[in-house]
Amino acid sequence: MITPTVLDAESDRWQRELAQAIGDPEALIELLDLPKALLPEARAAARDFPLRVTRHYLGLIRPGDPDDALLRQVLPLGAECRPTPGYVNDPVGDLAARAGSGIVHKYHGRALLITTGACAIHCRYCFRRHYPYGEDNSIRHHETMLQQLRGMTDVSEVILSGGDPLSLSDRRLQRLLEALASIPHLERLRIHTRLPVVLPERITPHLVKQLATRRFATSLVLHVNHPRELSDALRPGLWRLRAAGVTLLNQSVLLRGVNDSAETLCHLSEALFDHGILPYYLHLLDPVAGAAHFEVAETNAIALHEAMRARLPGYLLPRLVREVPGDSAKRPVHR
Ligand code: SF4
Questions:
Q1: What is the distance in A from the centroid of ligand 1 to the CA of 2?
Q2: 214 lies in a domain?
Q3: Predicted TM-score of the model (pTM)
């Protein structure tokens, strides 16, 4: 039994770290010893989609290297401000698939809940960077969402998404999980999160217990794009989750200048497995406005996937997919 005091102490630790995330481009540039000339563009791009990066993730970035693969994922660039044909605010058709307040219903038997608009890190290529989150973090919003879900009896798997669902406080998450557990037609729980990767303290004993004691078959789908994101600090929490029966999967996005080499992608798959995580999806970039500079052409993506296939055992080869609005499943790009 975890007492409220222990729960509060655990929550305090990760929430304190979260509160210390860096949001000022000037601070980021100074801390990482980057050229000051990057500042005006970074400020301009951050006006639309603010900079946010945890101290833990900052510690994984190589100082003094403007092309660092991890830095590229968080540093706002002037390229984000240039409109590109085909790059839009809602690239995967989330808004058209809304089945009610905060529920996205695209695929048979599954419903995705927008539990919050908050994240611990702002990934510059995020397909929801323009999503109108509004009040998605309010208690009232969660209650409305749950009420609608109770009526969706054809849904057997619920996906907690956002934003990042693990940015919810332990108490809020507990209330949400308890309410979901009381809905008879739900059988599986999936949580899409990047938070443990950028703030390993988030995998608290209480979180592990919450996920272990639910009546669902539970999977945690992490979002790791580069092997250097898998720090040693992450390892103990992941093993505790596995020991508690939680399935760990990963989805990556193929990003130019970040992971667009066969060597990096193979290393990523191997490092994921070493951390107890199975590679699941390798997504082509969703064409969201502001992220065109991350695009890897489909022909190159296929060549990279083929190179991975030649080097990796089948269970370490993620499926190369793209999401097409209106499709009934993710579309395979390559066999
Ligand atoms: S953590 Fe996920 S939802 Fe949040 S900004 Fe990154 S990609 Fe988007």
A1: 30
A2: yes
A3: 0.95
